[in-house]
Amino acid sequence: MKSYIVEFTHRVSGKSFLKFGHTKYSDVMKRFEFNPEQYQDYVIQVLASMKHNTLEEAESIESEFLYKYPKNLSLPRYFSGITEIYKPEDNQERAKILREFYTLRKNVERKMVTSTDINDATQKRFFNEANAR
């Protein structure tokens, strides 16, 4: 499970916006292979993503960004995920959003490593105890 930020750039106008989301795919771009014609007017670029252990974690990250950065533009055509889009005011705000995501990703990854270390230590302890009997 992954949460992500992608940037859509219109092929003709060059105008861009961000999309926050989550997906079951390890490659975020696979998320946009479903009915690809709906995205044909845009170049899609993954700006950031992070792994999660559960769907709830991924949904929580997505919800946090949607709360902070609610949809603030309308598009002439509908596509899947259209309610999860945001147009930053400028490049400074875009950079701020990405910094927030990267900081959050560091914290999430740190927790995942700690959780894995605890599980590994627990498994070793049980293995050693079982072999000692």
How helix-rich are the residues, as a percent range? 40-55%
Radius of gyration: 19 Å
The percent range for strand residues is 15-25%
The secondary-structure class comes to alpha+beta
Average of the residue pLDDT scores: 87
How many beta-strand segments?
A: 4
N-to-C SSE series? Answer: EEEHEH
| Structural domains: how many | 1
- Give the overall form: globular
N-to-C CA distance:
39 Å
**Which strand order do you get reading across the main beta sheet?**
3-1-2-4
Q: Supply the number of helical segments.
A: 2
Low-confidence stretches: none
Architecture overview:
With 133 residues, the chain is an alpha+beta fold. It has one domain. Helices cover 42% and strands 22% of the residues. It contains two helices and four strands. The protein has helices at residues 55-68, 91-132, and strands at residues 2-10, 16-23, 42-51, 85-86. It has a four-stranded antiparallel sheet. The chain is globular and about 45 Å long. 17% of the residues are buried. The model has no long low-confidence stretch (mean pLDDT 87).
